[in-house]
């Protein structure tokens, strides 16, 4: 079946770009408003008008440039800072010197901070410090002297921009860490799914070939020996990990890109609940007794499929470890909040510590084919075994699944 890839893009810094866009628009209007209310104090108002025409055109034309980090190039940042510095240095040409000495605003006023903040969001605190330094020098030049007010304004812009730049750098590092963690989780889940499929199919066939070949002898024994070697090698691969983590991160300007492989929808009508009884009934036979409720036992299709596969794995373990003459019983219970399936056999039971030893050897029948499947659909698997008294496996799946089956897939 075709598989599909879920792509999730995360960007903590994207809201900062939207805020910067709004800030540039609002501060442009604020700078124009200051000029309109105090134009009588300008010696050369036409200089201010010419600058504001350029400022309005530049601000509106470059709005797409501050939409994200990819669009905000170094060339744009340089030009944007030049526009801000030009406005500061043109202030003594347009306005009375007494107004400058009295602490009056520059032509771009607080719009200048937007240019510095763009440096901070794009390149971090070092870029912000560089842009703030140039703005501070321009303010000192236009006033003709160093004053307390100038120092206050420059420090305010510098500290704010550096702080924002540092936050952006931390956010990008957090995005990369989160993306890596999600990639590892996705790879681990895919490895477990492949391990279950391999255990339910390939490994069991190889084990059967080994047993039959050994029993037949001759050339068949050699074939059985080779099958046994391949079984050991494949178990080692399954236990060690089959799926390497992929490179899932792109440029931090677009946010962390995370790819997680989803399992295919191989059951028709995934939105229609499935009667679990129809999936378990084929197991009934001379050596397997099946007890079911009189009414349908509905579960989401994926949950029903995984639960039925876990029951199959439990019965396979009975046949392999308890012998062909062992009897099994399947009991289905439909409770108000959960569906419980119990698989019991009259075999010799499992010695204490054997399951942990088997898992360490790469034999993942219980760990993956049973417990792993139930964990993925939000359920639990409990195994009770007493040597000489058989084994009982209780599989519980909540009606409202916490796993992937609950998503309606």
From TrEMBL:
<dbReference type="Pfam" id="PF19354">
    <property type="entry name" value="DUF5931"/>
</dbReference>
<feature type="transmembrane region" description="Helical">
    <location>
        <begin position="21"/>
        <end position="39"/>
    </location>
</feature>
<feature type="domain" description="DUF5931">
    <location>
        <begin position="5"/>
        <end position="179"/>
    </location>
</feature>
<dbReference type="InterPro" id="IPR003594">
    <property type="entry name" value="HATPase_dom"/>
</dbReference>
<feature type="domain" description="Histidine kinase/HSP90-like ATPase">
    <location>
        <begin position="305"/>
        <end position="399"/>
    </location>
</feature>
<dbReference type="Pfam" id="PF02518">
    <property type="entry name" value="HATPase_c"/>
</dbReference>
<feature type="transmembrane region" description="Helical">
    <location>
        <begin position="76"/>
        <end position="94"/>
    </location>
</feature>
<dbReference type="GO" id="GO:0016301">
    <property type="term" value="F:kinase activity"/>
</dbReference>
<dbReference type="InterPro" id="IPR050482">
    <property type="entry name" value="Sensor_HK_TwoCompSys"/>
</dbReference>
<keyword id="KW-0902">Two-component regulatory system</keyword>
<protein>
    <submittedName>
        <fullName>MacS family sensor histidine kinase</fullName>
    </submittedName>
</protein>
<dbReference type="InterPro" id="IPR045975">
    <property type="entry name" value="DUF5931"/>
</dbReference>
<feature type="domain" description="Signal transduction histidine kinase subgroup 3 dimerisation and phosphoacceptor">
    <location>
        <begin position="190"/>
        <end position="233"/>
    </location>
</feature>
<keyword id="KW-0472">Membrane</keyword>
<keyword id="KW-1133">Transmembrane helix</keyword>
<keyword id="KW-0808">Transferase</keyword>
<keyword id="KW-0418">Kinase</keyword>
<feature type="transmembrane region" description="Helical">
    <location>
        <begin position="151"/>
        <end position="171"/>
    </location>
</feature>
<dbReference type="InterPro" id="IPR036890">
    <property type="entry name" value="HATPase_C_sf"/>
</dbReference>
<feature type="transmembrane region" description="Helical">
    <location>
        <begin position="45"/>
        <end position="64"/>
    </location>
</feature>
<dbReference type="InterPro" id="IPR011712">
    <property type="entry name" value="Sig_transdc_His_kin_sub3_dim/P"/>
</dbReference>
<dbReference type="Pfam" id="PF07730">
    <property type="entry name" value="HisKA_3"/>
</dbReference>
<keyword id="KW-0812">Transmembrane</keyword>
